[in-house]
């Protein structure tokens, strides 16, 4: 009745760690942050409130939420010397590479917040990272399109500030679209944490060596950039676009996936843990239909995506392998409708996952039982043998 679950010893022995942050039941399609169902948080909470919940363990009171938001607001600006950092990147640099390099570089500009065992330094690095990542993300985008960087406007909310820095220009006032801001806030909530996924495991592994928060999260950004992980939302759009350019024959594409032609996969489908519908995908699908329904010119890729889902969910190849849409299947369509280019989709995933990475790093660092991550292996190489001198090889 407490909602706690008991694991069989076999599971506990193979688990990477214990954690009190996020609970997933892959078979039942359940996702909870600190015990709260994702469906309730998606409907009633905000990204800043969920960030607080993940990192501090409880929903904030009104006073705590105001104090936390104010603390973030005064740290949105980057060290001025970091502007030169962006001048050094080529214009066509992938923004995820810019993001991981810049997060790592924060450790050089803010050397007073690197000690993982100093409470005040952990707090200030937490706030700095959460406050500055949207600024870094917007600079990466502005650099790629040759537009001037915009300083943060701290009279705006977290998401609104990011949208203005990304899409605003100095010449004209930027008008926030409240529907877009709310949709983006919800997408960030849905991505905020996800137990021990690949990028979070990377953050924990690097942090277990007592590396700083900036160094650990930079490794998480790199892991997330992989197309099998966070890079999937960008890969889904490329896949849908390719189907469209090939004449929109969805059934023909599904046949290629089933025949494993060129090793192609149905991007945005499948999951290491969810062997049922990803609860986040269901929420994102509803939002995609709402956000795209507002567009003057409907996006043909939405129809292709929905056809793809319908065909796959009726095909035993996918159903027998328990392949269902995951969080990445529809998100790219929404980001595209918001005006983001595909190269920025995984950056948006990173903005959402940041509080989860921070919360997991803090939990791991705060657990005195944590040992340095050192997985073992099963050796499959040559048996012992004597050295062969060069003239005898
Ligand atoms: C995320 O872990 C997380 O929590 C991640 C994440 C998060 O919030 O952090 O949820 C975010 O990364 C979501 C996943 C995004 N990636 C993609 O959408 C890329 C496409 N999907 C896959 O590559 C794949 O499904 C994985 C990587 C997600 C999972 O791969 P697995 O663990 O190998 O899948 P599986 O063991 O369940 O595969 C079973 C079978 C295999 O075929 P057989 O050997 O049994 O014949 O299904 C096949 C796989 O080859 N398969 C697919 C497929 N995914 C698995 N076949 C076609 N298309 C796919 N998408």
TrEMBL record:
| Any one annotated GO CC term | cytoplasm
Q: In which pathway does it act?
A: Carbohydrate metabolism; tricarboxylic acid cycle; isocitrate from oxaloacetate: step 1/2
Record's keyword annotation contains Acyltransferase = yes
The UniProt transmembrane annotation reads: none
> What organism is listed for this UniProt entry?
Allocatelliglobosispora scoriae
Full protein name: Citrate synthase
- Looking at the keywords, is Transferase present? yes
Q: What is annotated as the active site? A: 271, 328
């Amino acid at each position: 009745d407490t909602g706690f679950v008991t694991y069989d010893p076999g599971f506990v022995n193979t688990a990477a760690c214990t954690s009190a942050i996020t609970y997933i039941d892959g078979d039942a399609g359940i996702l909870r942050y600190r015990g709260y169902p994702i469906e309730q948080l998606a409907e009633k909470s905000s990204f800043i409130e969920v960030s607080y919940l993940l990192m501090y363990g409880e929903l904030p009171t009104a006073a705590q939420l105001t104090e936390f938001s104010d603390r973030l607001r005064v740290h949105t600006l980057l060290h001025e010397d970091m502007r030169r950092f962006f001048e050094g990147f080529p214009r066509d640099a992938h923004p995820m590479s810019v993001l991981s390099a810049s997060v790592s570089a924060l450790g050089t500009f803010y050397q007073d917040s690197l000690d993982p065992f100093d409470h005040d330094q952990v707090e200030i690095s937490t706030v700095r990272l959460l406050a500055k990542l949207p600024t870094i993300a917007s600079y990466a985008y502005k650099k790629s399109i040759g537009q001037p960087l915009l300083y943060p406007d701290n009279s705006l909310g977290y998401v609104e500030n990011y949208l203005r820095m990304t899409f605003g220009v100095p010449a004209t006032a930027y008008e926030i679209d409240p529907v877009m801001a709310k949709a983006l806030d919800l997408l960030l909530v849905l991505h905020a944490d996800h137990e021990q996924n690949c990028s979070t495991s990377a953050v924990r592994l690097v942090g277990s060596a007592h590396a700083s928060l900036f160094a650990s999260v930079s490794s998480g950004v790199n892991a997330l950039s992989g197309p099998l992980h966070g890079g999937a939302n960008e890969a889904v759009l490329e896949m849908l676009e390719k189907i469209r350019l090939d004449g929109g024959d969805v059934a023909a594409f599904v046949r290629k996936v089933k025949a494993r032609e060129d090793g192609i996969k149905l991007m945005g489908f499948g999951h290491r843990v969810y062997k049922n519908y990803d609860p986040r995908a269901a929420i994102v699908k509803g939002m995609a239909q709402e956000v795209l329904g507002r567009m003057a010119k409907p996006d043909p890729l939405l129809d292709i995506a929905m056809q793809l889902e319908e065909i796959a969910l009726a095909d035993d190849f996918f159903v027998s392998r328990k392949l269902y849409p995951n969080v990445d299947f529809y998100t790219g369509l929404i980001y595209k409708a918001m005006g983001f280019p595909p190269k920025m989709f995984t950056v948006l995933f990173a903005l959402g996952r940041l509080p989860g990475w921070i919360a997991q790093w803090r939990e791991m660092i705060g657990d005195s039982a944590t040992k340095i991550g050192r997985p073992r292996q099963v050796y499959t190489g040559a048996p012992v043998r004597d050295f062969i001198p060069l003239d005898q090889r």
